[in-house]
Specification:
By secondary structure, this protein is mainly alpha-helical. The protein is built from 21 helices and four strands. Strands 2-1-3-4 form a four-stranded mixed β-sheet. Helix 2 packs parallel to helix 15, helix 15 packs across helix 16 and helix 19 packs antiparallel against helix 20. The radius of gyration is 34 Å and the shape is rod-shaped.
Length: 417
């Protein structure tokens, strides 16, 4: 009799192509869309960035250098004066910083004449404009070599429509300022930079690999995320079918046929477990064929899938019991329309929220889909089955508790008629 109930549930699903398409086709479509659209982000690839940066010097550095050498001839030793060509801040900024091989991949630096400053500021294609004021290099040399209190500064004009590029330019300038400050400190303390570099190279330490894991691609992540989310709709679909059977007196006829209500209860439970298991196999099978999402540990994959199917079966029979008890489908609708989305968000199906907060990660693992996803991802990274036993235990415990509550809520024989 239990087999007949499972067969009946399967036939109802098969004869409803729209619902069957949503249950199987929707996760496949979502995997295709999310896996491709977010592949660069999930794979750690850098976004395409092109920064157009202008720099305008109100006074040329060679003029300031010549004036500084004449003015400070009696204050600085000749050896220092002979090295001034290597200390020009703007020249180093243009050639060594923004002109480096790494920076030129993303930043195009253009030298702007002072007369074209306003024109550049009105040009929306520029990300930022650096203005070097009069006497800047002269004052920098005074600050660095003669310990003058006045520290000159550059002026940065930014385009608010290019926030990412602006943050990059601002970060580079901040780092460059820190380097200049370090050099000034070394000169004041009479520390040879070469000695400092040599000492840093002599610092040794032990390198220990804590966890060597296989990286997860966007296809891997969203295959798991969409599978563990959409399989929850199996539970609501079975709950809706069971409630429909109550309204058309199928359940009553089963009871009148002197069949135990527990037979029907077990049939619903096993239907949820079996359909959830098959659903997961179909989704993961598709991803294996199309995206080459492979499982290093098939035994572990099977155990996780079976444990998650138990949890989904528990939800299916719980929704059925509650809808029978309340004589309403509102619980099933609330679960499918609202609760599944919230659980998917916390569990990380759409985005790995747990990476930004340990509390959210713990909260997500307290949902069946979150625990299932953590277990699947762990196996994809090359971990053993023993590493996910806590997630398996939670899924089995969740399913058991759901079954117990459903059994307690399931209407008695007289109440069902």
């Amino acid at each position: 009799m239990i087999g007949q109930i499972i067969k009946k549930q399967a036939l109802v699903l098969i004869r409803n192509p729209v619902q069957l398409l949503l249950l199987v086709g929707l996760p496949i479509i979502l995997i295709l869309i999310l896996g491709v659209a977010l592949s660069s982000f999930m794979n750690g690839e850098s976004p395409t960035i092109q920064v157009k940066l202008g720099i305008v010097e109100q006074e040329q550095e060679d003029v300031q250098l010549e004036r500084f050498s004449e003015d400070k001839k009696g204050e600085l030793p000749p050896a220092v004066l002979n090295q001034l060509d290597n200390m020009l801040p703007i020249q180093r900024l243009k050639e060594n910083v923004f002109g480096s091989d790494e920076a030129t991949k993303y930043i195009t630096l253009e030298e702007i004449s002072p007369s074209d400053k306003e024109k550049v500021l009105d040009d929306n294609t520029y990300t930022a404009l650096i203005e070097v004021p009069d006497n800047f290099t002269y004052e920098i040399l005074e600050y660095s070599l003669l310990a003058e209190e006045k520290q000159p500064s550059l002026q940065l004009f930014t385009n608010t429509e290019h926030q990412l590029g602006v943050s990059i330019v601002d970060g580079i300038l901040t780092q460059y300022q820190e380097q200049l400050t370090l050099q000034t400190f070394l000169q004041e303390e009479a520390i040879n930079p070469e000695n400092l570099e040599e000492n840093l190279q002599n610092v040794t330490g032990d390198v220990m690999t804590l966890d060597q894991q296989v990286p997860i691609s966007s296809k891997d992540y969203y295959t798991v995320g969409m599978a563990v989310m959409n399989v929850l709709f199996i539970a609501s679909a079975i709950g809706s079918i069971a409630f429909l059977e109550k309204n058309i007196f199928v359940f009553d006829r089963i009871i009148l046929a002197n069949v135990s209500r527990w037979v029907y209860f077990i049939g619903i439970l096993l239907s949820g477990m079996l359909f959830a298991f098959l659903h997961l196999l179909i989704i993961f099978g598709f991803s294996w064929v199309v995206f080459d999402v492979t499982w290093p540990d098939l035994l572990g994959f099977t155990f996780v899938t079976m444990s998650y199917a138990v949890a989904v079966g528990g939800i299916a029979v719980l929704l059925t019991a509650l809808s029978y008890r309340l004589h309403s489908e509102v619980i099933t609708n609330f679960f499918s329309n609202i609760l599944v989305s919230l659980m998917a968000l916390l569990g990380g199906s759409f985005f790995p929220l747990g990476d930004s907060s340990a509390f959210i990660a713990t909260l997500g693992n307290l949902t069946p889909n979150g625990a299932g996803m953590s277990a699947y991802i762990s196996l994809l990274r090359g971990n053993e089955l023993s590493d996910v036993t806590d997630h398996l235990a939670f899924l089995l415990l969740f399913g058991f508790i759901s079954i117990v509550i459903a059994a307690w809520s399931f209407p008695k024989r007289g109440a069902a008629l």
